[in-house]
Write a structure and sequence with these properties.
The complex is a heterotrimer of chains A (about 290), B (about 200) and C (about 300). By secondary structure, chain A is mostly helical. Chain A has one domain (about 25-40, about 75-280): MetI-like fold (Orthogonal Bundle). Chain A is about 70% helix and about 0% strand. Chain A is built from ten helices and one strand, in the order βαααααααααα. Chain A has helices at about 20-45, 75-110, 115-130, 130-140, 145-155, 160-175, 175-185, 190-225, 235-250, 255-280; one strand spanning about 10. Chain B has one domain: Rossmann fold (3-Layer(aba) Sandwich). Chain B has helices at about 40-50, 90-95, 105-110, 125-135, 155-175, 185-190, 195-200, and strands spanning about 1-10, 20-25, 30-35, 55-60, 65, 75-80, 145-150, 175-180, 195. In chain B, strands 6-7-8-3-9 form a five-stranded parallel beta sheet, sandwiched between helices. In chain B, strands 2-1-4-5 form a four-stranded antiparallel beta sheet, with helices on one face. In chain B, strand 7 (about 145-150), helix 5 (about 155-175) and strand 8 form a beta-alpha-beta unit. Chain C contains ten helices and twelve strands. In chain C, strands 6-7-8-3-9-10-12-11 form an eight-stranded mixed beta sheet, with helices on both faces. Chain C has a four-stranded antiparallel beta sheet with strand order 2-1-4-5, covered by helices on one side. In chain C, helix 5 packs parallel to helix 6. The longest helix of chain C is centred in the middle third of the chain and has 16 residues, at about 180-195. Chain C is globular, with a radius of gyration of 20 Å. The chains are: A mainly alpha (about 290), B alpha/beta (about 200), C alpha/beta (about 300).
């Protein structure tokens, strides 16, 4: 209890404190390091290390083979890492393309007049109205499956939510009093777009983009699992899971459980980064 | 210079008329109070006069000519909520310099301290932000100022400070001033002429 | 608990509020925004809390209601009818015994009819009809949506939300700015009637001239603390009837009085160094004002004031 009317700031002397900001930043950095490691490992792994070795078939997880081996004697840990890396790259590509579509659509809807706006909103409703997975399979199938089909499918179906967010933000800033005042102060349209509107949209875009990754990765894995995505020769987690399903009844649980859990872990890591960034940027939670 | 509104009418799409045949003129050096209850179109009229919205009928003329659509406007509007009229992501310095670069003289007259220029809007009080909003619209081309409930959200001391500065600057520069307010006592103190909008409005 | 009937409805002792805030980067520090407030409100009384924005008056209301943000730390004591207000008690009393009248209709759910919103969690349809009757609101108003209300109607609806609960303590946060004088006065009359029925009203406002007409006492806030708490009659008389130089400055700045401002501004909470927060703007400032660590509220001529030179 304080009886003074003097009001002071107590400055802490430590540079580092265990508080929300350090915790979130640490979480973001940790997740980022793991994800970069997976992405890099996928490129660096020698295909020979997961080549079939028939003398080592159907081994349960051990120290030499942490995720065990499959019916052809391939090391499941290295296959999983390779698969995760493939999913990661497809996810990155698809989410980035998707977010670019979202920005174009969102900005166009907010700035190019009522007709464009209602057309884009109609398109958004249309895409959101069709079950995600079905639309994805259709697009992937039409484009001939494989790598290209999958990422196009994911890219073309994931932009609506972010487009809506960006449209709303642009509309709100464009009609704000400070932009109206800026126009009367002689600021050009270009200056208003770059200096007033952009700084409000960019943080929304970044968080939206990062939260798109887990979606893109999961959807890539699920359509591949269902056989509408990547081809069996491409090492992806979806392929591993669908192939391994047949061996579940034989008691080889490690073939599905461990790769599946790793996929989930990776998705959750992305989600962590996105949610943590959001906490930091949201003024109502940033001071806790 | 003369700011004229001729037979202004306004309504939202097909809604009821808010303004009908409103005519008024304000000369240089005049301080006109625009009073009337809320919901009578005071704010709408100020936006039309400042060129923010187009009237459904009638015209706003500055020295007999139409207002320029682009560039720095000779008629500037000051809002009720300074925190909404300022981009929260900009430094105060950039906000101040958006339309013109005020000289030290103007800053002193408005009571803007040097240290405030480097700060963010969230670090200033409403009264301090409102000074920036006023200073940024005092460019050399400004001929008329419209203050729409400019001091309603401020405490009485800050209100008195701001009006004292405002009257001094408007007199020095021989600008016209339109004061939209529902505070009769304030209008009496500040204005040279008081107009009641419900009487002008031929609804 | 024996003194339930005689205890003030709200009794605040030595209340201080601090925020934990981030500086640049990762460091956190504490910022004291309310310091050493003593204030009580009795049944049947309107106490106006007046002061400029940033003086901490809204935070006081939030502290009483227990709705401060998570990074706030409260010290001191707050008692409601003799019961200590702990977070659990506050959650229980909020909306039932302590009611908030929000600032504008934007606090209502725009997609819900006003009738159910007025009833809230604890009210019934009959109570709502009674309250509407009392504020001369037509029965059909309950079927309207917030955007269909006129300014005056909206005010009465907002007050209804607080009255229906039969709360003993009503906190009104800036109920009048931006209203034309007739509606503002009607609103204040409603609060006066409520007080006359035996409720306690805390009226947070910077429309100090309206408080003159309807409040019983006025507490003047400056830089996070009370500088003067005095009967309203002293404020109407103005000048020497007031005890603190800041209250006098407020009075002189009113358009209907001198419309004379004083120079300078309220210091930012982080920049206060002790002593009198008003010292920098005060014409009576002496070394005692700046060197004293604390200046306590003292009773002078039937009012309380926080000033070394008050007589």
């Amino acid at each position: 209890m304080s009886n003074t009317i003097c009001q002071t700031i107590k400055k802490s002397t430590f540079f580092w404190q265990f508080n929300l900001r350090t915790r979130t930043l640490a979480a973001i950095a940790g997740a980022f390091v793991i994800l970069t490691a997976i992405a890099a490992a996928g490129i660096l792994i020698d295909p020979a290390s997961y080549a079939p070795q028939f003398q080592q078939k159907n081994l349960a997880p051990s120290l030499t083979h942490p995720f065990g081996t499959d019916w052809m004697g391939r090391d499941m840990f290295i296959r999983t890492v390779k698969g995760l890396s493939t999913s990661l790259w497809i996810g990155l590509l698809a989410a980035t393309v998707s977010s670019v579509i979202a920005v174009i659509m969102g900005v166009a809807a907010a700035t190019m007049g009522r007709r464009t706006d209602s057309f884009i909103l109609w398109l958004v409703d249309l895409i959101q109205g069709i079950p995600h997975l079905i639309l994805l399979m259709l697009i992937s199938f039409v484009l001939g499956k494989g790598m290209f089909g999958v990422w196009m499918g994911v890219a073309l179906t994931h932009w609506p939510i972010l487009a809506r967010v960006i449209r709303a933000e642009v509309l709100a800033v464009r009609n704000s009093q400070y932009v109206l005042a800026a126009r009367k102060l002689g600021s050009s349209r270009w200056k208003i777009a770059v200096k007033h509107i952009m700084p409000h949209v960019v943080p929304q875009y970044i968080v939206g983009l990062i939260l798109l990754f887990p979606h893109a990765i999961l959807h890539e894995a699920s359509i591949t699992f269902l056989g509408f995505g990547l081809l069996p020769r491409e090492p992806a987690v979806g392929i591993i899971l669908s192939e391994s399903m047949r061996y579940l009844t034989a008691g080889m649980w490690w073939l599905t459980v461990l790769p599946g859990a790793s996929l989930l872990m990776m998705v959750l890591l992305f989600d962590q980064i996105g949610e943590n960034l959001r906490t930091l940027m949201n003024p109502s939670s940033a001071q806790e | 210079m003369l700011l004229e509104a001729k037979n202004i009418s306004y309504r939202y799409q097909n809604g009821p008329w808010i303004l009908k045949d409103v005519t008024l003129s304000v000369g240089e050096g005049e301080r006109v109070g625009l009073v009337g209850p809320s919901g009578y179109g005071k704010s709408t009229l100020s936006k039309i006069l400042a060129g923010y919205i187009k009237p459904a009928a009638g015209e706003v003329l500055l020295d007999g000519k139409e207002l320029p659509a682009e560039g720095y406007s000779p008629i500037q509007l000051i809002y009720q909520h300074p925190e909404k009229a300022i981009n929260p992501l900009w430094r105060m310095k950039d906000i101040l310099h958006e339309g013109w670069v005020p000289d030290q003289c103007t800053l002193n007259a408005m009571g803007i301290e040097q240290g405030w220029l480097e700060r963010w809007p969230a670090e200033l009080s409403g009264g301090e932000m409102q000074r920036f909003c006023i200073a940024r619209v005092l460019g050399p081309q400004t001929r008329f100022l419209i203050a729409d409930e400019m001091s309603t959200m401020l405490d009485v001391i800050t209100q008195a400070q701001i009006w004292e500065l405002m009257i001094r600057i408007v007199e020095e520069r021989c600008m016209g001033l339109i004061v939209v307010t529902h505070n009769e006592a304030l209008a009496q103190k500040v204005c040279t002429r008081i107009i009641s909008l419900p009487e002008l409005n031929k609804l | 608990m024996a003194n339930h009937d005689t205890a003030p409805v709200l009794d605040i002792q030595n209340l201080s509020v601090k925020f934990r805030m981030y500086d640049k980067g990762l460091r956190q520090s504490e910022l004291q925004v309310i310091s050493d407030i003593n204030l009580n409100i009795k049944a049947g009384e309107i106490v106006a809390v007046a002061g400029s924005s940033g003086s901490g008056k809204s935070l006081l209301a939030h502290a009483v209601l227990g709705i401060l943000p998570k990074n706030a730390m409260v010290s001191g004591s707050m008692k409601y009818c003799g019961t200590e207000l702990t977070p659990a008690v506050q959650a229980d009393l909020r909306g039932r015994d302590i009611a908030l009248v929000p600032q504008s209709v934007s606090y209502l759910d725009p997609l819900k009819k006003v009738g159910p919103q007025v009833q809230g969690l604890y009210g019934t349809k009959e109570q709502q009809s009674q309250v509407f009757n009392r504020f001369e609101l037509a029965e059909e108003t309950a079927e309207k949506y917030p955007f269909q209300l006129s300014g005056g109607m909206a005010r009465r609806i907002l007050v209804s939300t607080a009255v229906i609960s039969n709360a003993k303590l009503i906190i009104a946060d800036e109920p009048t700015p931006g209203l034309n004088p007739e509606i503002a006065e009607t609103t204040m009359k409603i609060f006066r009637d409520l007080a006359d029925e035996g409720k306690a009203v805390m009226l947070i406002t910077h429309d100090i001239d309206l408080a003159f007409l309807f409040a019983d006492r006025i507490a003047v806030f400056y830089a996070g603390t009370t500088v003067e708490i005095a009967p309203v009659a002293d404020f109407i008389r103005g000048g020497d009837a007031l005890r603190h130089p800041y209250s006098r400055a407020l009075w002189n700045a009113l358009p209907q009085n001198g419309f004379k401002p004083i120079a300078g501004g309220q210091p930012y909470a982080g920049n206060l160094q002790g002593g009198c927060p008003y010292a920098a703007r005060c014409s009576h400032c002496s070394t005692e004002c700046t060197t004293a660590k604390t200046i306590k509220m003292q009773t002078v001529r039937g009012g309380e004031v926080r000033c070394c030179h008050a007589t």
